[in-house]
Structure formats: structure tokens, C-alpha cells
Specification:
Helix content: 25-40%
Distance between the termini: 49 Å
Oligomer: single chain
Number of helices: 19
Structural class: alpha/beta
Number of strands: 18
Length: 559
């Protein structure tokens, strides 16, 4: 019982074990039963009788397949996502605070089984037994997540669904989908179809390193999710206690939008293409009313497709405001609002969008530049990617925050300063770095600490072209984030990780081995070979933290 990730709050082993039999039954409220069966799908559990005394018997008095050996009940004394599991030799009893708690109880039982329980079907002769004892568990943080950038490299729906499954395995409950950026727009719009018809693909993609000569692969890249796909993704996620957090990053990072609808730009006569290189573009949306109306329509389409959307990310980061400052029309609009600078207009624009989202039932989420600009709605959530100190300032100002600091939560950085690593933006962020992260620094006041919703790791995909590389970058560093955000600290993580890697092997996850990449995972030559030391993360963090104090904080953080 000691090799669980994340670690339970209370773990009390007892003598003996419980053995599942083929067709074992689980009884209780239907929604809770469904959650347990989903987590333990490999066992092919059946819906059992709520009252075991009513179940039938086979000749000789043996239990029938539908007599419950697992029971699950709703316990109002438990909080959201909380549960208890009691394993005795004759039965398993689960108490859960809600459906998510029942799902997580099932995931814990799955980890107590042999690693082969993480395969899709049982192996011949498999025996399924769990040790006796009691586990009581509840999460430390409500926001335990992953960010997946599907703009820079599009990830087909199957990869998104697989990521949801892996989040659920680790009791992670947020998937932040970065759906729009300079390099691609990734969702169908029936109101503005040129967004997906033009903005979803680029003619080629750069192959240059962060510092180096500009070269291109000459290969078209693209893709988008239909609104029906979004509905499917959201339903799939809800069944696994994962909330989808869509992001449409504005007003900067707008090349793909403006390639489709150039009249929405600060310079309506400007020509735009979906960006084929990495880095920052000066392309920026106009802050005029027509742009607000456009985005309100698109936001409503996405929210309707996803269903319940408690959080909607609107970006606000890395905006070059030069075209706003040069536009007589935009300056006139700014002055009519009584705003002194383009930076004030940036803040007003994001607040206006947050108001639109509030009318649609969603809280706005922003990157920390939007907080530094000021004027946010009080209920806007801030993601401080440029370091913990700007996060502290946002928390002190009364905003809930989600920790997203580049170090150690940006998983597009390499895990070793070695040319054997696949190409990455820089180095180094190790599993140990992640495990040592303080989600709530000890120096924060109780009021500041109370504003921390949790944390998430970021998978920016400039250098993550496919699902295999996604696995390599996400795991096992993502396991450390799961442990931290659920348990509150890294206690027990190092000792539990070897057994958990056996589970990931059975699941088919192509994670980065602790000893370094397998031969087929190495970066190769040329553009696929990592350049150690080219972008040291410690230097990046120093520069980013300085920028959070700059008056022109919205400008790009890196060249």
C-alpha cells in the first residue's frame, strides 16, 4: 500500500487480502457504481444488487455473478472528490463524497492491484487481489491539472482523449486546452467558418533551434476539432472527473485569427498568414467593439459545445501594443473610455471579455501579464507563469491563482542538459525539480496561501510534434505534479515512483526513463538534437521575474 501516487492521507494496512472473481459485482447508486466500474474497467465489474440478500445463488450455495462483493455509498460527511476504501477478505466497501470521489477510490484500488491492471484486458491466468486495510483520502488542492498546447502542433482527438485518461489515472482534474495561437486555430466555428478553413493550417514549420538560422520543413501542418468533437471530449472528460478549460489567447498571438479575418486587426489593411515559425508576432486584434462582438460569438459557440464551462482562459500575455498606439481610431476609442495608455486599454479589453464570459456562466482565467496591467474583474483567476512572486502579488490583490511557473512546470524544457535529449526549448527541469516545488511557499501569509487553487504543468508543443514525444515530456514529471497537488507535498514520491513506472509500462506510456532516453527516444541529429545550455532555465526565470515589474509588462518576454 505504500507505493501509491498520489499518496493517500490515511493508510492503515491490515492482514489478509481480497480477491476479485470474474464478473464480481459492485452495488450502490448508479452514478457512483458507474464511476468505480470505469476506473476498474479491466475487471469487467457488473452492476450488483443494492441489497446482497436479494441476489441469487448457484447450486451448492455459491454466489452468483451479480451478488455484490463491492459496495459504494454516498457519504455527505465527505468533501468533494474525497473517499474512503475499506478492504476486508470478504468484501470491499467504498464511501465517497461525490462521483469524483468514487472514481478516485476506484483508481486507488487499481493501483493496489498488480501493474497488469493498467492493461486494456486481463492477461491469461491473471489473479486480481488487493491487500486488506483502510484508506481515507481527500485532495489538498482543487485545481490539479495539465495544459496542452494544440496550436503549435495539432494533437488529434485520440491524443486528447488519451491525455484525459492519464489525468484521471493520476487524480488530475483539469485539462487546459490552448486552442488558438499565432501558429494555428484549432476549433470549428459555424459563425466564422474562415477561422477553421484558413486559420487551422500553415504551409510549413520552422526547424530552427531557439538560437540559430531560420530553416523550414516544407511540410503543411494543420487540423481542428469540430464542435461535435468538443462535445465528445467534454463528455469523455466529465465521466473521468476532468474539467476542460478552453483557451482562446487574445488580443496578441492573433496571426491565425487575422489570416482569416484581417479586418479585426489593429491595422485593417495589414496582411497576415498563419505563423510558420516559433516566437512572438506583433499581430494583435483591435480592441474595438466589433472585436468584442466577434469574440463573444466564438466564446458562446465553444461554451455551448463543451456544455458546462466553469473556467475560460483568454490569455492576455505577450502583447505588442505598438499598432494600437499607432492607430488614430484605436486612440480615439481609448480616449473615449477615459484611458491614458495602450496598457490601460489592454486591461480594459480583458476585463470586458471577462464580463462577457460572466454573462455566459464562466470565470475568466488569464496569464499574469493581464494582472500586471491591472483592472481585472475581482473573480478573474490568474496563472503566474513568470514566477511565484508575481503570483504572490496577484493573491495579495485578492485573485485566486493557479501555479504555472516556467520553473519547474514548463515541460517543454529538457530533463537533462544532454545532446541525447530530444530537442527542447532549453534545460533543465527534472522530476526532482518538480517534486521539490512549493505550491504554496512557506513565506506566504495565510490569506495569500488561501488564494492558491493548485497547480498545473504546461506542455507547449513547439518541440512536441506527436503523441510519443508528448508522453516523453509529460511523464513521469506529471506524476510528481499529481502527487504534489493531491497530497500537498512530495513525501513518499521517490519511493513510490519505481512501482508506478511499472504501471505506466503496462498502460503503454512512453515516458522518459529515469536513467535517460531509450535509444529510439534520443534526439538524433540536426534540428532534432538538443543543444544543451542554449537556454538555461535559471537565467530565463531571472529575466521573467524582472519583467513582471516593468511598466510595459505585456510586451514579449523573450526574443
Amino acid at each position: 500500500m505504500t507505493d501509491l501516487i498520489p499518496r493517500p492521507k490515511v493508510l492503515a494496512p491490515a492482514p489478509g487480502s481480497f480477491e476479485f472473481t470474474p464478473g464480481a459485482a459492485v452495488s450502490g447508486p448508479a452514478d457512483l457504481v458507474d464511476a468505480v466500474r470505469l476506473a476498474l474497467a479491466v475487471l469487467d465489474l457488473r452492476q450488483g444488487e443494492t441489497n446482497p440478500a436479494r441476489a441469487g445463488t448457484a447450486p451448492g450455495g455459491a454466489q452468483t455473478a451479480h451478488q455484490a462483493t463491492i459496495s459504494v455509498e454516498l457519504d455527505p460527511s465527505f468533501g468533494a472528490e474525497s473517499y474512503a476504501v475499506t478492504v476486508a477478505p470478504e468484501a470491499v466497501r467504498i464511501s465517497a463524497g461525490d462521483v469524483a470521489g468514487a472514481l478516485y477510490a476506484g483508481q486507488t484500488l487499481r493501483q493496489l492491484l498488480p501493474a497488469d491492471a493498467f492493461r486494456s484486458v486481463p492477461l491469461p491466468g491473471a489473479r486480481w487481489s488487493v491487500p486488506c486495510g483502510r484508506i481515507e483520502d481527500a485532495p489538498r488542492f482543487s485545481w490539479r491539472g495539465a495544459h496542452l498546447d494544440v496550436s503549435r502542433h495539432f494533437m488529434p482527438k485520440r491524443e486528447v482523449l488519451r491525455m484525459i485518461d492519464l489525468l484521471a489515472v493520476h487524480k488530475l482534474n483539469r485539462l487546459h486546452l490552448h486552442l488558438a495561437d499565432d501558429q494555428g486555430w484549432r476549433v470549428e466555428s459555424q459563425a466564422y467558418p474562415l477561422l477553421h478553413e484558413i486559420g487551422s493550417h500553415r504551409a510549413r514549420t520552422t526547424t530552427k533551434h531557439f538560437h540559430g538560422e531560420t530553416e523550414y520543413d516544407g511540410t503543411p501542418h494543420g487540423g481542428f476539432y469540430t464542435l461535435a468533437d468538443l462535445s465528445e471530449i467534454a463528455a469523455y472528460a466529465r465521466a473521468r472527473a476532468v474539467t476542460i478549460v478552453p483557451e482562446i489567447d487574445v488580443p496578441g498571438h492573433a496571426s491565425a485569427i487575422l489570416a482569416a479575418y484581417p479586418h479585426l486587426g489593429a491595422d485593417p489593411a495589414g496582411r497576415h498568414e498563419v505563423l510558420d515559425r516559433w516566437g512572438i508576432s506583433p499581430a494583435i486584434l483591435s480592441p474595438l467593439p466589433a472585436t468584442i462582438d466577434f469574440l463573444a460569438t466564438v466564446f458562446a459557440e465553444i461554451i455551448e459545445a463543451l456544455g458546462s464551462v466553469p473556467y475560460f482562459h483568454i490569455g492576455g500575455d505577450e502583447c505588442v501594443l505598438d499598432e494600437w498606439a499607432a492607430s488614430a481610431e484605436i486612440n480615439g476609442h481609448r480616449e473615449s473610455l477615459g484611458l491614458a495608455t495602450p496598457g490601460d486599454l489592454h486591461a480594459w479589453f480583458l476585463r470586458r471579455l471577462a464580463d462577457v464570459l460572466a454573462g455566459l456562466g464562466s470565470l475568466a482565467v488569464v496569464w499574469d501579464e493581464a494582472f500586471v496591467s491591472g483592472m481585472l474583474r475581482e473573480d478573474t483567476i490568474v496563472m503566474p507563469w513568470r514566477g511565484v512572486e508575481v503570483g504572490r502579488r496577484a493573491a495579495a490583490a485578492g485573485h485566486d491563482i493557479v501555479a504555472t511557473s516556467v520553473f519547474p512546470l514548463y515541460f517543454d524544457y529538457a530533463e537533462a542538459a544532454s545532446p541525447e535529449e530530444p530537442v527542447a526549448i532549453g534545460d533543465t527541469i527534472t522530476v526532482g525539480d518538480v517534486a521539490a516545488f512549493e505550491t504554496v511557499p512557506a513565506s506566504w501569509t495565510p490569506e495569500e496561501a488561501g488564494r492558491v487553487l493548485g497547480a498545473q504543468f504546461q506542455l507547449w508543443t513547439e518541440r512536441i510534434p506527436d503523441g510519443r514525444t508528448l508522453d516523453y515530456r509529460a511523464w513521469p514529471r506529471g506524476c510528481a505534479v499529481a502527487h504534489l497537488t493531491w497530497s500537498g507535498n512530495a513525501e513518499g514520491f521517490d519511493g513510490a515512483l519505481p512501482a508506478h513506472l511499472d504501471r505506466l509500462d503496462a498502460y503503454g506510456v512512453e515516458y522518459r526513463p529515469p536513467a535517460g532516453p531509450h535509444p529510439w527516444q534520443r534526439g538524433g541529429t540536426g534540428a532534432r538534437r538538443h543543444r544543451p545550455g542554449a537556454v538555461p532555465v535559471a537565467e530565463v526565470m531571472r529575466r521573467l521575474e524582472e519583467l513582471t515589474h516593468a511598466a510595459d509588462s505585456t510586451r514579449p518576454s523573450l526574443d
